[in-house]
Amino acid sequence: MITITPAAAKQIRESAKQSRMEGMALRIAADRQSDGSIHYGMGFDDLNRDDDTRYTAEGIELVIAPTSRALLDGTVVDFVEIEPGQFEFIFMNPNDANYKPPEDAG
């Protein structure tokens, strides 16, 4: 369903450690906007809802609500340097109307 890159997994673990939320699952949510793009949210969550999907990617326990499942299918979460010294999580999602796959540097 969702792929977590090693760089993203490392940052997620570091964030959990810094905020004393180690051992909590990471909830990822998605909501389609009026222009077809997708807005994302993520945070540590210790709630256990019966209809959530739970699985592990790159050693990170993920939780996805039913309303976000289809929107997140095939998404890759990465942690990249956008500009020198500025790192951000990015969502590469083929379900997003504005998504353009990265070009091969090849």
UniProtKB/TrEMBL annotation:
Could you tell me what this protein is called? Sulfur oxidation protein DsrR
Residues in domain Core?
A: 2-95
> From what organism does this protein derive?
Thiohalobacter thiocyanaticus
Q: Which SUPFAM superfamilies match?
A: HesB-like domain
Gene3D superfamilies on file: HesB-like domain
